[in-house]
């Protein structure tokens, strides 16, 4: 399957490499078609890897686009991708609205009664946004067994079929055992607001390989 990955950071690179390892064709999108990090990632990932602008990657995607861009820039990225290229696509949004302009710890650029996931969904009503994976480190995203024991990933989205397809990717491609459907895209607010806790936990536990588990 041809899949678009927006983002040249460690998340885009890690998810893109995992998708390639599963036999998919992946185009990494960036502001510049010849982005240096994307060039390096393509060289490392073989013939099924390619690069382009955000618009190129969105057009390339048959059904799924992973949004692995800075949350504060994600709406601008979607605009660069182009409305027509996003129509009827499933946008798997792993971004977080982290604002580091005042240093550490970051604040949230949007929260409480709004979220990045909702902003993308509301701006592009003909795309299906599914918020997920934003509450764990990218190595854990594609290899949850890095964290021993039971632990959970969340999904938020308005379209049931899109959420079900993304849940299938999480379980059958990435190896997640526990996927909790939080509800519609407004539930992305809570998932994004877990990040102030996540960044402090990272400092407290000293490894990014941890995750949340909802014990019942
Ligand atoms: N690090 C993790 O393990 C982790 C875990 C969970 C969630 N997340 C979230 O995943 C996302 C990606 O994280 P990351 O660390 O891999 O990368 P990042 O540094 O947060 O974002 C890199 C991407 O954002 C784009 N970008 C930055 N500023 C932009 C602007 N002003 N306009 C347009 N595009 C812009 C860059 O475009 P160019 O390619 O053109 O430079 C690049 O593709 C973030 O939202 C992060 O909070 C990260």
Description:
The model has no long low-confidence stretch (mean pLDDT 98). The protein starts with a strand and ends in an 11-residue tail after the last helix. It is an alpha/beta fold and 216 residues long. A hairpin with a 7-residue loop joins strand 6 and strand 7. The chain has ten helices and ten strands. The strands form two sheets. Strands 3-2-1-4-5-8-9-10 form an eight-stranded mixed β-sheet, with helices on both faces. Strands 6-7 form a two-stranded antiparallel ribbon. The structure holds NADP nicotinamide-adenine-dinucleotide phosphate.
Strand order of the largest sheet: 3-2-1-4-5-8-9-10
**Can you tell me the residue ranges where pLDDT is under 50 for at least 5 consecutive residues?**
none
N- and C-termini, Cα separation: 37 Å
Compute the number of helices.
Answer: 10
Query: What shape does the CA trace take?
Result: globular
Structural class: alpha/beta
Question: What ligands are attached or bound here?
Answer: NADP nicotinamide-adenine-dinucleotide phosphate
* Largest sheet descriptor: 8 strands, mixed
Estimate the helix proportion, in percent. 25-40%
């Amino acid at each position: 399957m041809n899949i678009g990955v927006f983002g040249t950071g460690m998340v885009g690179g890690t998810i893109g490499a995992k998708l390639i390892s599963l036999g998919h064709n992946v185009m990494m999108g960036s502001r510049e078609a010849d982005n240096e990090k994307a060039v390096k990632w393509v060289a490392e990932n073989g013939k099924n890897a390619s690069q382009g602008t955000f618009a190129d990657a969105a057009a390339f995607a048959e059904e799924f686009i992973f949004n692995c861009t800075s949350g504060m820039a994600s709406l601008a990225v979607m605009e660069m991708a182009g409305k027509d290229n996003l129509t009827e696509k499933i946008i798997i949004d792993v971004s977080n609205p982290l604002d580091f302009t005042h240093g550490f710890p970051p604040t949230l650029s949007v929260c409480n009664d709004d979220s990045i996931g909702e902003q993308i969904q509301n701006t592009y009503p003909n795309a299906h946004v599914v918020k997920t994976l934003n509450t764990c480190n990218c190595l854990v995203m594609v290899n949850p067994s890095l964290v021993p024991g039971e632990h959970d990933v969340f999904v938020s989205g308005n379209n049931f079929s899109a959420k079900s397809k993304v849940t299938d990717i999480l379980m059958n491609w990435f190896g997640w055992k526990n996927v909790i459907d939080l509800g519609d895209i407004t539930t992305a607010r809570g998932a994004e607001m877990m990040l102030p806790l996540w960044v402090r936990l990272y400092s407290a536990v000293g490894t990014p390989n941890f995750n949340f588990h909802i014990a019942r």
